[in-house]
Amino acid sequence: MRHGLRFALVLTCVGFAHAALAAGSAEKGKTAFVQHGCWQCHGFVGQGGVTGPKLAPNPMPLEALSAFVRNTRGGMPPYQKAILSDADIADIHAYLSSLPKAPDYKSIPLLNP
Amino acid sequence: MARKDTADKAGRRKFLTGFAAAGAATAATAITAPAARAAEPAPRAPSALPPSFQVAQAETGTPREAKNRIGGTAGSDFMVDVIKTLGIKYLPANCASSYRGIHESLINYGGNKMPEFLTCMHEESAVAMAHGYFKIAGKPLMTLCHGTVGLQHATMAIYNAWCDRVPVIVVGGNDLDAATRPPGVPTFHAAQDINALVRDFTKWDDTPVSLAHFAQSFVRAYKIAMTPPYGPVMISLDAGLQQEVARSHGDKVAIPRYVPTAPPQGDSGAVKEAARLLAEAQNPVIVADRAARTPNGIKLLVQLAEALQARVIDQGSRVNFPKTHYLSAPPNAVSGADVILGLELSDFWATVNSYTDNGDNGGIGANSSRIKQGTKLISISSSELLTKSNYQDFQRFQSVDVPMAGDAESTLPALIEAVKAAIPSSKKGAIEQRGQAAKKAHAEAEARTKQAAALAWDASPISTARLCAETYAAVKDLDWSIVSQSGNVSGWLNRLWPLTEHHHWIGRSGGFGVGYGAPASVGASLANRDAGRFSVNIQSDGDLMYAPGVLWTAAKHKIPQLAVMHNNRGYHQEVMHVQRLSNFRDRVANLGGDMGPVGTSIMNPDIEYHKLAESMGWWAKGPIKDPAQLGPALKEAVKIVQAGQPALLNVWTQPR
User: Using CB atoms and an 8 Å cut-off, which of residues 434-473 of chain B contact chain A?
Assistant: First the structure.
């Protein structure tokens, strides 16, 4: 609960401060996603797993992602500007936004044995 | 220590003495002859002197009746007699001179049956094989090793067995008598007290000094290992004792009869109080880790859960509860509980609390409660009967309202009866409603799980969800058994496969010592082979490389297994740890040209696991990176395994 409140406050503040975050490049974002270790917990296509939640498809808005990455006090370690620039975050967001929607599990025979 | 029989040595000594005397005579002649020639010419010396009486007898006489060199029954033959009384089926071991006596007796005198010697290439593999075997067969194996260097290799696997409450009988050879042990290597491989190395994580150890003592020690070791809480035991076996002649001292040396000890049950008063709390609870939740020691444990837990319509969280060191049952619940189900029953939990604290490794509190991380204030906690655990000081496998201290020191499975029948008696008729409607809510929650969770599995379905490297789904599709019509620990595949084995039987999964390693997976899977596959089952191993890459020689052991002894590599090309747990610390310190993680931080990747070059397996007698294929190729490859591999050969697919996978 304590972390949830803090995160909500951060989002509110960041909403004003980063209202004009530039749109990124999906191609650069794919490289940044690997270089900066996002794949380690979230998988190469942001599918998530036991180590980290799903990021794609339909990622959270860029501003929220940026605020979370900079300020998280949960299981994920924060990434400050010294190691991940705003441009990198925007590129990563563009990459996650470019990933296709997963098929409905009901259409996959192996998931309905 | 070892008392050598000298009865038959006199003849040999006399023979040697005679030979030495003849040689001395020859030498004396050679030295004195030149002096004699200086005084006067001497007659020409003969080219060879006639043999002495003793030498002539030794060379030409009729040999006495052939007899073995030790002149009687080997002590180690008697040891084999003792071992055979306990019905131990296999003996995985890496050979060593300090146990050559019993090794020879096992394969020749004992006919290499009960136990059958399985050639291992590492002592850690041998112990882990015994560990995996027990988790399927429910029967312990023994292993032999050098008491020093071999035991040093075996220690991590013994620690895993200790933490996982699994019986393994470890026997270490040792040349104890410094006055008679062979010099050189055997001295480096000897010690005063080899058992000291593993005393902190074995239930019991002994150093027998006579054959009668061995008989008692071995049967006692077996009995202690097999009394819940189970655990590994250690016997130091003197090399001299193995090789000395068995003496009767008038009577035949007795072998004690093994009678299993009844497991300890929870106190009857505490059982009654636990039943009262559970029966009166609004939302009781059961959490089980090593509760089901046997297939019957699962049945009992189902009975208890259904009597209460209580959801069950299976923490997975064993198959405790059917995954398909509507009362099967995820770990966060504790959050709404007002009474929690913990059965053989290795970590009650972490069951009801959470820890976040976020650098808070001066870097140590943050703790928070997962449960409502006032939630009553009940524990039944045999681990309370066996805690040692040095190794900290007992976790953080958790206060519990009704703690019982006893074996959970053995206590369940009494608890079930007490719960049924304690449920007031007025509560029956509410209990039924609880069950209906659980059915709905279970169905919704299953749909969410499957949709999560559909994510990255066509990705390359192959997603761990697809890896598990494809593998299940290939074996679902067989009598299958998962012989890997967790496989580090985001729990997809447990989430997608219908685990309902005791043999469906062997559970985790206990101590999380990496290198356990491959050998434990081979041991479990051995037990499955004998039961006519099909073994599936989701094999992590880093784990296999600790001691890959176990692949050869599987091929050598015709132990079939389908191994599907989860090849994510890294020690992935450590990949994330180093990344986390880099972030906490505002430093860019140095990848050194790999994908993970320096020191954590297994790439450049990539290991060709299929070639490694092929070189050791396995059928193998890979690397498989395209998910569309996985299904057909699995079909091929399954046929090979059904024909009796182990098969491995090297699959490139997503990290988790």
Answer: 447, 450-457, 459, 461, 463-464, 466, 469-470, 472-473
* Chain A hits for B490, Cβ within 8 Å: 49-51
* Residue-wise pLDDT tens digits, B452-476: 999 999 999 999 999 999 999 999 9
Tell me the chain B residues in contact with residue A51 when contact means C-beta distances shorter than 8 Å: 490, 576, 655-656
Q: What is the mean pLDDT of residues B589-614?
A: 96
Which element (helix H / strand E) includes B380? Answer: strand B376-381
Compute the distance between CA of residue B158 and CA of residue B164 in angstroms, rounded to an integer. Answer: 10
Q: Is it true that domain B455-569+606-651 has CATH number 3.40.190.10?
A: no
* A110 within domain boundaries: no
Three-state DSSP class for B579?
helix
Q: Which of residues 474-533 of B touch A (CB under 8 A)?
A: 476, 490-491, 496
| Position A68 in a domain | yes
Which residue from B490, B579, B582 is facing A49, i.e. has the nearest CB?
A: B490
Task: Dump pLDDT digits (tens) for B285-314.
Answer: 999 999 999 999 999 999 999 999 999 999
Nearest CB neighbour to A111, from listed B453, B584, B654: B453
| CATH classification at residue A94 | 1.10.760
* Chain B residues lying within 8 Å of A103, measured CB to CB: 454, 457
Give helix B464-475 / helix B428-454 axis angle, nearest 10°: 110
Contacts of B280 (CB under 8 A, 6+ apart): B422, B427
Please indicate whether, in this complex, the C-beta atoms of A37 and B579 are within 8 angstroms of each other.
yes
Query: With bands split at pLDDT 50, 70 and 90, how would you rate the model's confidence at B623?
Result: very high
pLDDT tens digits along B518-529: 999 999 999 999
Q: Give a yes or no: residue A109 inside a domain.
A: no
Residue A111 located in a structural domain: no
Domain map of chain B by residue range?
9-60, 75-243, 268-440, 455-569+606-651
State pLDDT tens for residues B354-373.
999 988 898 889 999 999 99
B594 touches chain A (CB under 8 A): no
Cis peptide leading into residue B229 (ω within 30°): yes
- CB of A39 within 8 Å of a chain B CB? The answer is yes
Closest CA to B610 of B595, B627, B625: B625
Contacts of A73 in chain B (CB under 8 A): 356, 358, 360, 366
The pLDDT of residue A22 is 72
Give me the residues paired with residue B172 across strands. Answer: B145, B236
Interface contact flag, A49 B447, Cβ < 8 Å: no
Write out the residue range of the structural domain in which residue A61 sits.
2-101
What span, in angstroms and rounded, lies between the C-alpha atoms of B196 and B205? 9
CATH number for the segment(s) B268-440 = 3.40.50.1220
pLDDT tens per residue, range B75-96: 999 999 999 999 999 999 999 9
The CA distance from B559 to B525, in Å, is: 6
Name the architecture of domain B75-243.
3-Layer(aba) Sandwich (3.40)
Q: Contacts of residue B476 in chain A, CB cutoff 8 Å?
A: 113
If one counts the domains in chain A, the total is 1
